[in-house]
Amino acid sequence: MNNQIYLIVLFLALVTVIPTVSAQLSVGEEANQKLIEIKLDKSEIVNVKHVIAASGITGNVNLFDGVITESIIVTNDNGDEKEFGLIGYGGALESITIFPSNSSSIIKYNLKDVSTLYENLWTSKIQYSETFSVLFSEETDLIFLNNTIIQLENKKGVSVNYGGNATIQYYDKIPKIIEEVSLEEDKFNVEIITNSKIDKFNFNQESKSIKFQVNEKNKFVTVSMEEELVGDPYIVLLNDEKIMYTKSISKENYVSLSMKPQAVGEIIISNSQYHNDLTQITSNDTLPAESIPNDYFIWLVFGGVLIIVAIVVIIIMRKIKK
């Protein structure tokens, strides 16, 4: 019995004191991560960085899917490389073991098969169990996070709070179309960003509506304009049927509406109040009472009274004859 206890103590001591890069045992608890960062830079290779708080005990750090093993580097605050352990199953890496340290540990590695480019649109599918940040290059200003439009402006990126599944998309080259429109005496620019082919653009001042033809389906369409052109609240139609859209305000009085039409056809962006009023009027097949001429209404009543009087007179005359 004593020999077994000595063997267990000796085994734990060896694992703790003699770390190795190829270690396959998980020792310690989950590490305290101060920062988790992903960088998307219009490349199929994605960069990842974890910053781990100093700790006197061994800690484990979960990895993102798709790790390139050869790219893993662990350093301290001064840039000196540190030893670490790798934990995996079935050939896929799952986590890194960080050994006790008086300074922060910085883990860097690359991912493959996460980011792809198709028809001018980069798509990255990322999954993690904790809050992580996604950084972009300076030239990337417009992104879609799980189909929701986000204008980065002066921000470097976005934060995916509490982790989860994130599908991030952005254009390799911005496909922008600019149309000039007039509202009363003022002129405005309407910007349309899409990989889809657009034609038959039109702006109607009276109805405050924008119309254009979309010739490809399942592609993002983002319309940016001065808010007064259409006016909040909005309605977006595809072939006269409502479709979902997301709204982003990039600066004062400037709005971006993004949609992903599931079919080709005509897109209409209109003021919803105007549209509702118009529908209410055109759906009524009868003329309102006030549109009937007053003279005609008087003669109609007078005629009805005469008929009633005539009927009463006839009934009285018949009774007298009897």
Structure description:
With 322 residues, the chain is α+β, with helices and mostly antiparallel strands. It folds into two domains: 2-171, Immunoglobulin-like; 176-282, no CATH class. The protein contains three helices and 25 strands. It has helices spanning 2-17, 272-282, 294-321, and strands at 29-30, 33-40, 46-52, 59-62, 73-75, 84-89, 92-98, 105-111, 115-118, 121-128, 132-136, 142-145, 148-151, 157-160, 164-171, 176-183, 186-194, 198-204, 209-214, 221-226, 234-238, 241-242, 246-251, 254-259, 265-271. The strands form five sheets. It has a six-stranded mixed sheet, with no helix packed on it. The longest helix has 28 residues, at 294-321. The model is unreliable at 1-26 and 277-297 (pLDDT under 50).
Instruction: Give the total of beta strands.
Output: 25
Global outline: elongated
Q: Topology as H/E string?
A: HEEEEEEEEEEEEEEEEEEEEEEEEEHH
| Low-pLDDT windows of residues | 1-26, 277-297
Q: What is the highest CATH level, the class of the largest domain?
A: Mainly Beta
Please give the order of strands in the largest beta sheet. Answer: 5-8-3-2-11-14
| CATH hierarchy: architecture of the largest domain | Sandwich
Helical/strand content category: alpha+beta
Mean pLDDT: 81
Using the coordinates shown, work out and report the CATH topology of the largest domain. Immunoglobulin-like
Distance from N terminus to C terminus (CA atoms, Å) equals: 133 Å
> Percent of residues in beta strands?
35-45%
The number of helical elements comes to 3
